[in-house]
Amino acid sequence: MATTTQERRVTPVHDLRSSRRRAVTEQMTRAVLLIATALSVIVLATLLIDILRDGAGRLSLDFLTSYVSRFPEETGIRAGLTGTLSLMALVALMTFPIGVAGAMYLEEFAPDNRFTRLLEANINNLAGVPSVIYGLLGLSVFVYILGFGRSLLSGALTLTLLVLPVIIVAAREALRSVPREIRDGGLALGATPLQVAARQTLPAAMPGILTGMILSLSRAIGETAPILVAGAIAFRRADNEPWYPLEAYTAVPIHIFDFVKRPQQEFQIEVASAAIIVLLALLLLMNSGAIVLRNRYSRNR
Amino acid sequence: MNQRTSAQLSEAPATGQEKAGRSVVFDVRDVSVHYGSAPALVDVSLQIRRREITAFIGPSGCGKSTFIRCFNRTNDLIPSARVTGTIEYHGQDLYAKDVDPVEVRRRIGMVFQKPNPFPKSIYDNITFGPKVNGMKVDLDEVVETSLKRAALWDEVKNKLKDSAYSLSGGQQQRLCIARALAVDPEVILMDEPCSALDPIATSKIEDLMRQLEDDYTIVIVTHNMQQAARVSDRTAFFTAEVESDHGDHRFGRLVEYGDTATMFSNPTDRRTEDYISGRFG
């Protein structure tokens, strides 16, 4: 093997000026990155401004407290608002215990075998299933087979199925981020694995779990397709304000869907935009709730 | 809770293995530990005596940490780990089928390399052990006595509700020792308890160990030979051997075990001499 001694080009030590080409590449890359970031923000801002301009004029206390009407100036979203709030409360009530228990099993107790891996793969896949398919499942299982009818309960169960995989994944992530040493410390004191999981690991993971939970709920709050399929009702009056889980119900996104379908311009643009603003405000509220919770818990560390 | 196991494990009288006036707490015979098929520690036999400090020293990869984890069955938590040979605790086989590792760990406490307080208040850190073990005790009293024994009381008595994370590293490690004492164990295992601490915090922990020796049996892993010489009554020196079957995998072996003073002044094995005189490791 011929070893040709390659001549090394040595940069003169005294030349400390920056290379022109490198500087240009650097600047250009930065510009491209900035544009990419700005693009998404601009789109969001346009959307918000457009909706606020169209809908702000229709917003009033009456809009929140009246039922749907044929007349755009009289209509409101009271039934949807109460429906959405009850829906979220029920979904939270059902997903929290099941999601946390599932995550705790997978993360703390499940043996590392083929069955566990199958479970994990399934949960991860479920998190990616289109939401309308959950609606069909809800329609056949909850509405017909279990006979809950087109009720708030059917809708809540359908949304529970939809967000459960997401919550399990988030909760597992939170549990996994609790340092191994915490568990070791607990076990070394003669605590059982269950005691360690329930009294040390879970509380330590709680901020992460709650954040994940609220974020997935705020996704569910805007879902229209699944509850539409599983029987939310668009246009009834006083009797669809759900005070009882087996009653008919509606939700804010269903209202929006309904308003947009109507022939009158006022409904399509102004009223629908006003309802969207309310929905966005709810979302914002939940997300800031998540941030507050996370900060409060992490301050206690 | 398994009543039978707990009755079995509680203070069984030492079975005639009295030597040099102090009874044997652990009788280890031919213990080997494997991770999967690769050995980590091979054929260790030694005895650990009551109310003494026993130090395990040796270069990294010599299996001393693996070995100390056998005494409270922490190796059970690693699925691939397999312990063979026998370890008797007051004459009972620690690895017998009907022995509950949870009961073992309650009697044989452990302090880890990195201070690992729970993300809770100082008070809650201490009371966790007594609570989960269902001990019928006055918690305030346990907190006070444990912290006093761990020489931490004066520094924290006015802020028991503060987060344990607000303490310094050395204080956190003493809190972990106090936490271990709160469940009233007989043995305390310490796995390089000072390796994350500065010299002042280290000397506080060493002082503490000598005080605790009056009431507890202490086993300490350390890579600091001076520490072993300063605090321990007996020292076991391990070495790392290379085994080519598993791609130059390193595993540990016990070289020499004996009285610390004798071992440091007059080691019988050449490798021990080389190690303690700083020629390798």
Protein traits:
heterodimer, A: 301 residues, mainly alpha, 2 domains, flat, B: alpha/beta, Rossmann fold, 11 helices, globular, disordered N terminus
Explain the overall architecture:
The complex is a heterodimer of chains A (301) and B (281). Chain A has 301 residues and is mainly α. Chain A has 2 domains: 21-58; 61-299, MetI-like fold, CATH 1.10.3720.10. Chain A has 11 helices and no strands. In chain A, helix 3 packs parallel to helix 6 (152-176), helix 3 (78-109) packs antiparallel against helix 8 (193-220) and helix 7 runs antiparallel to helix 8. The longest helix of chain A has 36 residues, at 20-55. The termini of chain A are far apart. Chain B is α/β, with parallel strands linked by helices and 281 residues long. Chain B has helices spanning 3-9, 64-68, 101-107, 122-132, 139-149, 153-156, 169-181, 199-212, 225-231, 260-265, 270-276; strands spanning 24-35, 38-49, 53-57, 81-89, 92-93, 108-111, 187-191, 217-221, 234-243, 249-259. In chain B, strand 7 (187-191), helix 8 and strand 8 (217-221) form a beta-alpha-beta unit. Chain B starts with a helix and ends in a 5-residue tail after the last helix. The model of chain B is unreliable at 1-20 (pLDDT under 50). Chain A binds chain B through residues 112, 179, 181-182, 184-192, 195, 199-200, 203-204, 300-301, and chain B through 72, 74, 77, 79, 102-103, 105-107, 109-110, 112, 114, 116-120, 128-129, 132-133, 163, 165, 176, 179-180, 182-183.
What is the N-to-C order of secondary-structure elements of chain A (H for helix, E for strand)? Answer: HHHHHHHHHHH
The CATH superfamily name of the largest domain in chain A is: MetI-like
Give the proportion of residues in helices of chain B: 25-40%
The fraction of residues in strands of chain B falls at: 25-35%
Secondary structural class of chain B: alpha/beta
Mean pLDDT of chain A equals 87
The appropriate CATH architecture of the domain at 3-106 and 186-276 in chain B is 3-Layer(aba) Sandwich
